[in-house]
């Protein structure tokens, strides 16, 4: 089973629940596990080195990288840069009307602007087909 690492803003996790649920369903049909790092790992502020080492290890082992950046987050930018340096396929998602990151967009294999999570399946199909 392949793994997709999902990077997103921890402080906006609740607002992205519908998107995460939809992504999980879409990827599951293609036998891809969605790894939501902020759900699986919890760190105290003084554990920043351990947090980033854990995140980098998870990104290295992932088959693809998804950045949901409807809410800007420095950590997502760092994770995306790392994924880009590793040559991972990067899917960049943001909700229409949000102040998205053009820097992260510049690293993406595919960029999708969506209005509602139900639009993601059709929009993601070409990206997922390229993965094989």
> Helix fraction?
40-55%
Largest sheet: 5 strands, parallel
Give the mean pLDDT: 92
According to CATH, what is the topology? Rossmann fold
- Our measurement of the CA-to-CA distance between the termini, rounded to an integer number of angstroms, reads 13 Å
Notes on the structure:
This protein has a five-stranded parallel β-sheet with strand order 2-1-3-4-5, sandwiched between helices. The model has no long low-confidence stretch (mean pLDDT 92). It has 132 residues and is α/β, with parallel strands linked by helices. Helices cover 44% and strands 20% of the residues. It has one domain: Rossmann fold (3-Layer(aba) Sandwich). It contains six helices and five strands. Strand 4, helix 5 and strand 5 form a beta-alpha-beta unit. It starts with a strand and ends with a helix. The radius of gyration is 14 Å and the shape is globular.
């Amino acid at each position: 089973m392949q793994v997709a690492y999902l990077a997103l803003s921890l402080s906006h996790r609740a607002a992205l629940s519908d998107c995460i649920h939809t992504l999980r369903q879409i990827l599951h049909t293609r036998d891809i596990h969605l790894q939501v790092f902020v759900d699986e790992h919890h760190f105290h502020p003084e554990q920043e080195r351990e947090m980033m080492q854990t995140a980098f290890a998870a990104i290295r082992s992932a088959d693809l990288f998804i950045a949901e950046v409807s809410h800007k987050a420095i950590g997502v930018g760092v994770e995306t840069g790392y994924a880009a340096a590793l040559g991972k396929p990067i899917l960049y998602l943001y909700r229409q009307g949000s102040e998205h990151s053009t820097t992260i967009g510049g690293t993406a294999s595919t960029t999708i602007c969506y209005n509602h999570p139900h639009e993601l399946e059709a929009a993601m199909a070409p990206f997922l087909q390229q993965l094989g």
